[in-house]
Every structure is written in structure tokens, then in C-alpha cells.
TrEMBL record, chain B:
The keyword Nuclease is assigned to this record: no
Regions crossing the membrane: 150-169
Source organism (scientific name): Halovibrio variabilis
Protein name: GGDEF domain-containing protein
GO molecular function, a single term: cyclic-guanylate-specific phosphodiesterase activity
């Protein structure tokens, strides 16, 4: 085998260096920031997972990738079921305060899968993102704040579920982690819906524009969206 | 473009750039901030409103009340509630409030804020979508006000900056123009010296030019001293320092034939009796000392001239020329006293018979000398202690008393002088200018300066006369535009009032002023040179030129004239007389001409008698000539 020709390390001439620095400086001045690739990027996801949770996390991620592969061209019902089951099985329901040391922390799917633990909204976000990735339009998906009665007791708890609306004014299907199977909303008498939202207007269209806005980062939604973008989901 | 203009342009451009730039940046960042705030407010209000509606019965009246309550705060442009199909259920919208913000400003700013959107939930189902837009007029108005305020502050800051810049520019401009003036002076061979400016670069330039001027001054001083030594060697008696006979006779002839005040005066001749006997008695050294004392005492009798004209006619005869002197009795007393002092220094009795003879314009030199000899012989025969013989001359005085003289002179000056025209030509025979001595009409005739100048001087009327002469010259220039040389007395140029009047006179007719040359006599004090320098500087912009007349070989002030800016120097007839036969004179004149040329000063010979002298003058480097031998070119 011929020896690899030794390349001299690329040395910038003084003029090139100055020109580059000048261009960068000008670019920074005019607000042209190098935007991170806003797209689904499996390679970047693997890197992020490897860095943060090591081999164990990486194997869960690979399972997730194969799930995506399996459900790719299935009908919506099958997709909903598959996704719901995947996360209900992989993630243990534990309060944020124990997992993250915060009262209320919205984790990205990668963080949830990496830890293998999560709170109600972590399930909802992970399912939402996965379904979106499978091609379900966000119009049909809404995160719903609900009041939940646990078991037969009268204790109520703030909870969040993912609703699938076949039409805007239709009764949704509820993807929940308390009751593992998918049921129509009307059968869930243990849940009282209060308010719902989805990511419309947050990242639909040119949402990356608002990333530079320091005030916008206060929003939990935006914060989790931003983290997902750096990790490679969006 | 001048440096100062460039400086101003740069300052104004910088100010504009920085002010317009900071105004634009400030408006842009305010706009951005306001957009963010409104956007958050839109989203926030929409969510809050949708949240409260979600909890209520979906009764349209209740919902409308809620929307109206929110809308009526006045901060909203539009609030719309749509059902899930997108058809409008409730809508409230307001007119665009314009306020006092100009339309162009609104178009320029054009806030771009997305409306706040939130979904209302009815149980598990979605009820509708709430869309909300804020009223932007308040934002426009506040941004407009703050822009106006900023602009006002910037105007104020700009005015202050301009004021500071004015001071700075003036601080640069003033010394700069002085340096430029000095450089121009030097290029015109006026080697002036100025105060060093504080700016470093200008100071270095000024230092260099000042050193140059000082060097030129030093060089000139050395050269004129050399010339002076040469002259002493050639023209003076080795023992006593008195002028040689020929030189004295030349000077005497020049004064007699001159047309001005110098043509009137006294001659004092002293004979050292029995000089040979004295030599034997006292020895050569003591006798020489005695003679030197005599010459210096005689010289002191002339209090006016910087170098008194004392000549040694032969071994024992000494003669003193006193131009301007007219009081015989007083002179006689002074001479007696001076001679007594001389006698007192000698260890033996010394007899100094003396003759005093006045002279007047157009007297014959030979006759005067014969009269002197005769008087001296008579004095020698006197056996009294006081051996002075005075030959009174029948003075043809026009008027008998001082009061009459004064009145008549004032009247004559008032009536106006007349100018005589004598051409001054250069080597090519072209006219340089005309020398114009004044004539005054006294006792019904036009009299030359020699007649009236002594009286003018006595009555301090020089300034009045000079001013009248300048006026007359200007009047003549109106009809005949040939360059005219006018005499100014030293008394006039040191007189501030005269200088001011002269300046006003010339400024009134600037086109004629260019044709005027002013000449001052060479008998200038240092004070008068200073005044001359000021006068030259003041009148140079008008185009007048200045010269010095009657410059003799003894003139050693040349070095002091290096920064005056003279146009020419007129050499006394004593230097010119018979120059074609005297190599010594040629050497001296050539030296003076060379020195003057190095200062950019022309040299003109006075009293040229014939063509031989004229040719010789031009050969030794003189630039112009005047006198009886110079004729008007045809």
C-alpha cells in the first residue's frame, strides 16, 4: 500500500485569515448566525445519546429507530398503538423532582429514553414527537392538561395526556401512561380536561427565528423544542 | 482643497455618520424590543383569554362579554373567535388610531408582530380558536417621541461638538497660516522669524525656517563686516581713520550737487600748526594719538549722521562736513570747546587755527575750498587764543523770521507740492521708476528740497509734507500711470498717525498703489528700521514697494534688513562718482550688489554723471541707475 502522502496542515495566509475574521465579524454584526441544521438527524441523536447516557441509552435509541422503521407505512391506529406501547413500556413513571431534581421539568424524548424514567408530560412529548416523525400532522395532536383521579381514591392529581383528534371538533383518543391502552376520551371518566395546546405557531413555519429571543426561552415549550433541535430531533 | 476645509469636511462627515448611525441603531433596537414585547403580550393574552373561556359554559353571550371586556381596554386592534371550521363567531376590531405620528415614520418602522393564537377547549373537544392583535399606535407614538428626543439630544451634542471642533480647527489654522506666511516670506527672500507654534509638526517647520533666517542674518552680518573692513582699508587714512582726500571730495561733491536737504550745511577746516615740530617734540606715537583725538572730536560735532564725514586733506589739514547745520554761532562755540579739549590732551602748546564756511546748493566746490583756505590763512595769522575765522555767507533766506517760514510752509504744503521726474533705468534702458523729489512753491517760485527741508525738519512738518507728496503722486498717477518713487522721512515712518493716514489713502486707490515706491533715507535708527518693517508688512498687500536711498559705503545695517522685504537700495553718489576709474569703488559696489541680490534687493546707483560711469555700474552688477547722466529712454 502506498504510504499516505503527508499533507501540510492547512495554513491560512495572513490575508485569508484577516478576510475570514472580517467576514465573520461582519456576519455577526449583521445578525447572520450559523443556524444549526433544523431537521431530523439520527447521527446527531446517536452522538447526543452516546455523550449523555452512554451505551444503555444508545440501545434504547436504536430500538426507537427500529420502531420508526416498523411503523413507517402503517395506518394511524397501528402507529398510535405502537408508539403508546413503546414509551409506556420503556419509561418508568416517576415524579420530576426525583428524576431531574426540579418541580416540573419537560424532558426531551432523548432525555426520557436515556434516563428510562419520566413524568406525565415527558411521555406526552415523546409520543407527540415520535408521531410527528411518523408523519402525523400536528393539527391532529394536542397535549391536554387534565385533572386525574388515581385509582378508586378521591385523590386528584395534575396530569398531562396526548390527545389524537381525527377532526378538530371530534372526541379525541387519549394516549396515557396511567391506562396503558388507547381509549376514546369519553371512556376516561377518571380524567377532567382543562386546556390543550400543541406546537402550532411555535415551530411550524420559520420558528427558528424566535430562538434568538431571550424572552421566548422562558416558555417551557420553547425550551424543550430548543433542546430537541440541538439534540437532532427537529 | 485647503487642509482646513478638508478637516471641516471630515469632522462634519464623522459627526453626521455617528449621529445618524446611532439614531438608526437606537430606533432599530427599540423597534425590535417593542416587537418582542408585543408578540409576547399577544400570545400571553390570547392564552389567558382562551384558558378562562375553556372553563366557562360555551354560551356565546358570555364569550362575547369576555371578548368585549378584553377589547374595551383599548390596547387591541382586533380580537376574533372562530369555531373549528374557521367561521367567525365573535369579532371586535378597532380603527387604526393614527395620533400625531407622521405616515412616513409608520411606513419606515412598520411593526411586524404575529397575532396571538390560542385554542379554546370544550371538555375533550375543541371549541374554537381565539386570535388577537394589539393596537400598534401607542408603540408608534412612543417610538416617534423617543426618536424626536434622541434627535434633539443629538442636535445639541452636534452643536457642542461643532463648537469644540471650531476651537480645535482655529488652534490649528492660526499657527498654520503664520507658518505659511513665513514660508512665503522666505520664498520672496524676506528672511523673517516667527514665534514657534505649539503644534509639533508646525513647530519643527518653523524651527527650521527660523534657523534658516538666523543663518542668513549671520551670513549677511559677516559679509557686510568684511565689506566694511575692506572699505576702511581702501578709503580711510590709516593713522587717524579720517577719509582720504579723494573720497572726501567725492562725498562733498555728491552732497553739493544733490537736490535735497543735504546740499545745505557747514564746512569746518582745522589745521594742526607746525605738525613737524610737534612730531619732533612729542614723537610719532603721541602725535598720532593727538590727531586721532582731533578727528574723533570733530566727528562728535555731527550728532546726526551714523558716520560723520571727516576728511584729511593733507598731512595737517582736517575737514568736517556738516550737512543740515545752519547756526554758525552755535557751531563756533562747539568747535572751540572741542578744540580746547584736544589741546588739553597735548603736553605742549598746540595751535589749531580753524575756519568755518557755510555752503548752499549749487555752490562751486573749488570756490568753497578757496574761501576755506583764505579763512584758514587768516586764522593762522590771529595771535589770540581763539583762532577761529568764520566766513559769513550772504544767506539768501526767503523769509526773515521763523514765524513767517512756518506760515508760508504750511500754506505751500496746503496748496500742494509739485513733483520733479527723474528717470531710473535698468541695464536694458527700460524705466524702473521715476524718482520724484518734491518742489514747494515758496516766494512765487518752485523751490527744491534743499531750500525748505531744513525748515520742515525744524518745524516737525515732515509728516504733513510727505502725505501731501503722496497725495500729489496719486493725483498724477490718475492721469499718467508711470511708477513713481516718493521720499518718506524717517520721522514720518515712525509716526503712527502718518502710517495710518497713508494706509487709508492707499487703500482708497489700490490700483494706483501698485505704482508707488517709497524711499527712506539710509540714516535709519534701529527704531526706524522696526517701523519700516511694520510699514512694509502693512502696505505690501497693496502692491507698494520700498527702497532705501543715499546708501553709502559705510552702510552696515544690511543684515538688519533681511526680513524687511525691501525692493531696492539706492547707492549714494559718493560710491558712484568716478567709479569707472577706481577699482576700489568697483570692488565695494560689487560686494554690496552681491549681498543685496542674495536678499532679493535691487541695487540702483544715484547721481550717475556720464555714460562711462553708467556702463561701469552695470558691469559690476548694479541693476539700475539715475542721475544727470541718465536720460529718459526715447
Amino acid at each position: 500500500m502506498p504510504a499516505p502522502s503527508s499533507h501540510s496542515p492547512p495554513v491560512l495566509s495572513r490575508r485569508q485569515f484577516l478576510a475570514t475574521v472580517g467576514a465573520l465579524w461582519l456576519g455577526a454584526g449583521f445578525g447572520i448566525h450559523p443556524t444549526p441544521a433544523a431537521a431530523f438527524d439520527p447521527q446527531r441523536l446517536r452522538q447526543s445519546m452516546q455523550q449523555q447516557y452512554g451505551q444503555a441509552g444508545l440501545s434504547v435509541l436504536e430500538e426507537w429507530f427500529s420502531l420508526l422503521q416498523q411503523l413507517q407505512n402503517k395506518d394511524v391506529q397501528a402507529q398510535l398503538r405502537g408508539v403508546n406501547d413503546f414509551f409506556n413500556r420503556r419509561i418508568r413513571w416517576i415524579d420530576d423532582i426525583q428524576v431531574w431534581g426540579q418541580e416540573d421539568y419537560w424532558a426531551t424524548p432523548l432525555e426520557a429514553m436515556g434516563k428510562g424514567q419520566g413524568d406525565c408530560e415527558d411521555y406526552s412529548i415523546a409520543k407527540y414527537i415520535t408521531l410527528k416523525q411518523l408523519g402525523v400532522t400536528s393539527r391532529y395532536l394536542r397535549m391536554i392538561y387534565v385533572r386525574a383521579r388515581i385509582g378508586r381514591s378521591q385523590i386528584t392529581q395534575a396530569h398531562m395526556v396526548l390527545g389524537y383528534y381525527s377532526a378538530p371538533d371530534a372526541e379525541p383518543l387519549v394516549l396515557d401512561n396511567i391506562v396503558p391502552s388507547i381509549t376514546p376520551a369519553s371512556q376516561r371518566t377518571d380524567l377532567d380536561p382543562l386546556f390543550s395546546f400543541n406546537s402550532d405557531g411555535l415551530w411550524a413555519g420559520g420558528s427558528s427565528e424566535s430562538r434568538a429571543d431571550p424572552l421566548a426561552r422562558l416558555s417551557r415549550w420553547r425550551s424543550v423544542i430548543e433542546r430537541m433541535q440541538t439534540q437532532g430531533f427537529l | 482643497m485647503s487642509l482646513i476645509k478638508q478637516l471641516w469636511l471630515a469632522i462634519i462627515a464623522l459627526l453626521l455618520l455617528s449621529f445618524v448611525g446611532s439614531l438608526a441603531v437606537s430606533i432599530a433596537s427599540s423597534r425590535h424590543y417593542i416587537e418582542q414585547a408585543v408578540r409576547i403580550k399577544n400570545e400571553d393574552t390570547a392564552t389567558a383569554l382562551a384558558l378562562s373561556m375553556s372553563q366557562l359554559d360555551k354560551d356565546l353571550v358570555t364569550l362575547e362579554l369576555l371578548v368585549a371586556a378584553q377589547f374595551d381596554t383599548g390596547y387591541y386592534q382586533q380580537i376574533t373567535l372562530r369555531d373549528t371550521d374557521g367561521s367567525v363567531l365573535i369579532e371586535r376590531s378597532a380603527n387604526e388610531y393614527t395620533g400625531d405620528v407622521p405616515a412616513w415614520f409608520r411606513q419606515l418602522i412598520a411593526f411586524d408582530v404575529p397575532s396571538g393564537v390560542a385554542t379554546i377547549q370544550d371538555g375533550w373537544r375543541q371549541f374554537g380558536t381565539l386570535e388577537l392583535e394589539s393596537q400598534h399606535s401607542f408603540a408608534y407614538a412612543s417610538l416617534w417621541r423617543s426618536t424626536l428626543e434622541l434627535a434633539a439630544w443629538f442636535l445639541l451634542a452636534g452643536a457642542i461638538s461643532l463648537a469644540i471642533a471650531t476651537m480645535v480647527v482655529r488652534g490649528i489654522k492660526h499657527p498654520l497660516s503664520r507658518v505659511v506666511a513665513q514660508a512665503q516670506d522666505i520664498s520672496a527672500r524676506r528672511f523673517t522669524t516667527i514665534k514657534e507654534p505649539r503644534t509639533l509638526e508646525l513647530r519643527q517647520v518653523t524651527q527650521a525656517m527660523n534657523v534658516l533666517s538666523a543663518n542668513v542674518h549671520q551670513m549677511l552680518t559677516q559679509e557686510s563686516h568684511k565689506l566694511d573692513e575692506l572699505r576702511r582699508h581702501l578709503q580711510h587714512d590709516r593713522v587717524t581713520g579720517a577719509l582720504n582726500r579723494d573720497v572726501f571730495m567725492g562725498k562733498f561733491a555728491a552732497q553739493l550737487s544733490s537736490d535735497d536737504a543735504r546740499a545745505t550745511g557747514m564746512l569746518v577746516m582745522v589745521r594742526v600748526q607746525a605738525l613737524e615740530t610737534l612730531n619732533e617734540q612729542l614723537g610719532h606715537a603721541t602725535t598720532d594719538g593727538l590727531l586721532r583725538t582731533l578727528v574723533s572730536q570733530l566727528g562728535q560735532l555731527d550728532g546726526e549722521a551714523p558716520e560723520p564725514v571727516v576728511g584729511r586733506l593733507n598731512g595737517s589739514d582736517f575737514i568736517l562736513l556738516l550737512p543740515h547745520a545752519d547756526d554758525v554761532e552755535q557751531l563756533s562755540q562747539h568747535v572751540t570747546k572741542a578744540l580746547a579739549d584736544v589741546s588739553a590732551t597735548a603736553p605742549v602748546a598746540v595751535y589749531l587755527p580753524t575756519a568755518i564756511v557755510p555752503y548752499a546748493p549749487h555752490d562751486e566746490r573749488g570756490t568753497l575750498l578757496a574761501t576755506l583756505d583764505d579763512a584758514l590763512a587768516q586764522a593762522e595769522s590771529l595771535s589770540t587764543h581763539k583762532q577761529i575765522v568764520i566766513r559769513h555767507r550772504e544767506r539768501v533766506s526767503l523769509y526773515s523770521s521763523h514765524a513767517e517760514w512756518r506760515a508760508e510752509l504750511a500754506a505751500a504744503i496746503h496748496a500742494g507740492p509739485e513733483l520733479a521726474y527723474f528717470p531710473v533705468i535698468d541695464a536694458q534702458g527700460e524705466i524702473l521708476h521715476y524718482e520724484c523729489p518734491a518742489r514747494l512753491k515758496l516766494a512765487g517760485e518752485w523751490q527744491t528740497a534743499g531750500i525748505f527741508i531744513p525748515w520742515i525738519t525744524r518745524f516737525d512738518m515732515e509728516s504733513a509734507l510727505d502725505l501731501a507728496v503722496v497725495k500729489k503722486a496719486l493725483t498724477n498717477l490718475n492721469t499718467d500711470l508711470k511708477p513713481v518713487g516718493v521720499n518718506l522721512s524717517a520721522a514720518s515712518i515712525t509716526n503712527t498717525q502718518f502710517v495710518n493716514e497713508l494706509r487709508a489713502l492707499l487703500e482708497a486707490q489700490p490700483s494706483l498703489a501698485k505704482q508707488l515706491c517709497f524711499e527712506v533715507p539710509a540714516t535709519l535708527s534701529t527704531h526706524a528700521i522696526g517701523s519700516l518693517r511694520g510699514l512694509c508688512a502693512a502696505l505690501r498687500p497693496l502692491g507698494c514697494t520700498f527702497g532705501i536711498e543715499h546708501v553709502g559705503a559705510e552702510f552696515t545695517k544690511l543684515a538688519d534688513l533681511h526680513d524687511v522685504g525691501l525692493a531696492y537700495l539706492k547707492m549714494d553718489n559718493s560710491l558712484i562718482h568716478h567709479i569707472n576709474t577706481s577699482t576700489n569703488q568697483q570692488t565695494i559696489v560689487r560686494g554690496m550688489a552681491t549681498l543685496c541680490h542674495s536678499l532679493g534687493i535691487q541695487v540702483i546707483g544715484e547721481g550717475v554723471a556720464d555714460n562711462e560711469e553708467l556702463m561701469c555700474l552695470f558691469l559690476v552688477g548694479v541693476d539700475g541707475a539715475t542721475g544727470p547722466g541718465v536720460r529718459q529712454p526715447v
